[in-house]
Amino acid sequence: MAAEALDSCYTNTERKNIEELQNHILAFTKSVDTLKTDLKGKYTVLNGGCHKDWKPFRDHCYYLVKEKKTWFEGERFCKKEGSSLVNVKDKDENKWLQSQFKDVKKFWLGITDGDLKHWINTVDYAPTTYFNWSSGEPGNGAENCGVFYQGNGKWHDYPCSYLHPFVCKKDVR
């Protein structure tokens, strides 16, 4: 009875327009469902928004390059990928890195003292604020680039000309 009363409020033209609109909405919904099915597995924003082979953590993506390169070559490679060598911000990130990338024993970090005796990161060249140096590190001399030891998560400094794997890091956005 209420439906009949409501129905009588509309003219035939209005009823026809409402029915047509409902049919368009139904067709649109079916089209969206079909697109979702068609695109599934083709274009995904899974993996935390990171590209294939990159690992997500917080708002960043990380990529291990097993090919050994100098620190400078590693940084150049990362820059081409829109990233930079990994700079560790805190203890949690350090632990996460240690739990990942177990295929290598050590890798370059995105920190250098560049003969200045204070360590900076390669993202914005600001002073590094978190460190996890191994006992006796950093050493003196011509060891100006940071290396992450996978086994214990500790850091060492090495000559930048040595060859090591490296990890690139970039923002998800």
How much β-strand is present in the residues?
15-25%
CATH class wording of the largest domain: Alpha Beta
> Which whole number gives the mean pLDDT?
86
Task: Tell me the total number of β-strands.
Answer: 8
Tally of helical segments:
4
Domain unit count:
2
Task: Provide the structure class.
Answer: alpha+beta
Radius of gyration of CA atoms, rounded to a whole number: 27 Å
Distance between the termini: 55 Å
Strand order within the widest beta sheet = 1-2-8-3
The largest pleated sheet is described as: 4 strands, antiparallel
The CATH topology assignment of the largest domain is Mannose-Binding Protein A, Chain A
- Unreliable spans: 41-45
Helix content: 25-40%
Q: What sequence of helices (H) and strands (E) makes up the elements?
A: HHEEHEHEEEEE
Assembly state? single chain
Task: Assign the CATH architecture of the largest domain.
Answer: Roll
Q: Which term fits the overall shape?
A: rod-shaped
Describe the protein.
It comes from Mytilus galloprovincialis. It is built from four helices and eight strands; from the N terminus they run H-H-E-E-H-E-H-E-E-E-E-E. It has 173 residues and is an alpha+beta fold. The protein has two domains: 2-39; 47-171, Mannose-Binding Protein A, Chain A (Roll), CATH 3.10.100.10. The strands form two sheets. The chain has a four-stranded antiparallel beta sheet, with helices on one face. Strands 5-4-6-7 form a four-stranded antiparallel beta sheet, covered by helices on one side. Strand 6 and strand 7 form a beta hairpin. The longest helix is centred in the N-terminal third of the chain and has 28 residues, at 12-39. The protein is rod-shaped and about 90 Å long. The termini are far apart. The relative contact order is 0.18. The model is unreliable at 41-45 (pLDDT under 50).
